[in-house]
Design goal:
Elements (H helix, E strand, L loop, with lengths): L1 E6 H14 L5 E2 L1 E2 L1 H5 L3 H10 L4 E4 L2 H11 L4 E4 L8 H6 L2 E5 L2 H14 L3 E6 L11 H9 L7 E7 L11 H13 L8 E2 L3 H6 L7 E2 L22 E13 L4 E2 L5 E2 L4 E6 L16 E4 L2 E4 L9 E4 L14 E5 L5 H8 L3 H6 L6 E5 L1
Parallel strand pairs: 1-19, 2-10, 3-4, 4-5, 5-6, 6-7, 7-8, 8-9
Antiparallel strand pairs: 1-11, 11-14, 11-18, 12-13, 14-17, 15-16
Length: 361
């Protein structure tokens, strides 16, 4: 069907590049949520751990429990989506450290610490303008005045998250930085973390004590206005199932959304929106055959996509069983994302488990 090749050396090389970019006193964590951005948590986290990563971020408790079995007992695992008292024992038994996003979570976690009779590690998350998860300004003020609310909590970092760091000159980057610097005064001597992948490359001022690269580890571009400083880590080829000819005036695919002006040679490939090749790519974007661009024609189906081979020289035409490039030398996830109006994150995290995953090191 399709072969998804993950270059683990590229991922660990990208991690080491971030270590080189970050300030000397700044730690580098690895974000491996969403099945390591579609690349496979087991292989990716193992490689990163061997390369020196000792702090990981995931989104859910299930991800955290899986990651603990992969990296062992020593690395710090932080869970972005907060603390769920219904599964309190799992946090302490498996040393999953929650990112506390609300006063209610802080109260519940402090209560757990009291029950356990020990200080429990966590991160405090401050909302600096994204209006997503995080403590509000009044919450920070209250905690500064009533520090006993944090009783039993070993606050390891205070963090926030950029909303627009992928846009180099967006004014919100500096405004969030200013809000964060003011807010952390409520927690003196506590290490701080603000920068995600793009934030790392915007300013060393944003690094603080810990940076949290995610998408750039996998080769997506953290500075989309210019060249990609990271090494591509993912390639994908899909199998041609059938080659056929279409006549001028004929249509193809569901709802006949493409009509051929001229005779055309087509390849039907084993990939569709169930595999992460988004339906928005219907009549947009392309695959590549030996470096030749093959535009998508008609609607992307659940399991199949039709591409036009008309510009491929006769000697390079594929046969059933041959592979066409989806991701690779001629096309990145960011390129595909641009074709369908999304971001590379969505392309990677949509990659199907039906692909055969091959890991190179």
């Amino acid at each position: 069907m399709g072969t998804l090749t993950i270059n683990l050396s590229a991922i660990t090389g990208n991690f080491k590049k971030i270590q080189g970019v970050a300030a000397s006193n700044c730690a580098v964590a690895a974000v491996v949520k969403a099945n390591a951005y579609g690349c496979g948590t087991a292989a990716v986290a193992s490689a990163l751990h061997k390369a020196g990563a000792d702090k990981f971020f995931i989104a859910t408790l299930t991800e955290g429990l899986e990651l603990r079995t992969i990296v062992g007992k020593n690395p710090d695992i932080y869970m972005l989506n907060g603390f769920d008292p219904a599964h309190a024992d799992l946090y302490t038994e498996e040393n999953i450290r929650p990112v506390l996003n609300s006063v209610g979570e802080i109260e519940a976690y402090s209560k757990l610490a009291s029950q356990k009779g020990e200080a429990l590690p966590a991160i405090l998350h401050i909302d600096t303008g994204m209006n997503r998860l995080g403590l509000e300004k009044q919450d920070v003020t209250m905690l500064a005045d009533q520090s006993e609310k944090l009783g039993g909590i070993d606050v390891q970092y205070v963090m926030s998250h950029f909303a627009c760091s992928d846009e180099k000159n967006h004014p919100m980057n500096e405004s969030q930085y200013d809000v964060f610097r003011e807010a952390v005064k409520a927690f003196p001597n506590v290490p701080q973390s603000l920068a995600n992948s793009s934030g790392i490359f915007r300013s060393p001022d944003y690094h603080f004590d810990l940076v949290r690269p995610g998408m750039c580890l996998y080769g997506l571009n953290p500075t989309p206005e210019t060249y990609n400083p990271m090494v591509s880590a993912v390639s994908l080829g899909v199998e041609v199932l059938q080659v056929k000819d279409a006549k001028a005036g004929e249509t193809c695919g569901y709802n006949a959304t493409h009509c051929f002006e001229n005779n055309a040679k087509l390849a039907i490939v084993s990939m569709g929106y169930a595999d992460g090749f988004l339906r928005e790519l219907s009549n947009k974007g392309a695959l590549y055959c030996k470096g030749h661009r093959c535009p998508v024609r008609g609607r992307v189906s659940m399991d199949l996509t039709i591409v036009d081979l008309s510009e491929v020289p006769e000697n390079d035409l594929p046969k059933p069983g041959d592979m066409l490039e989806v991701l690779g030398e001629h096309q990145s996830a960011d390129d595909i994302a641009a074709d369908c109006g999304t971001i590379g994150y969505e392309i990677f995290t949509s990659l199907s488990r039906r692909y055969q995953r091959v890991y190179k090191d």
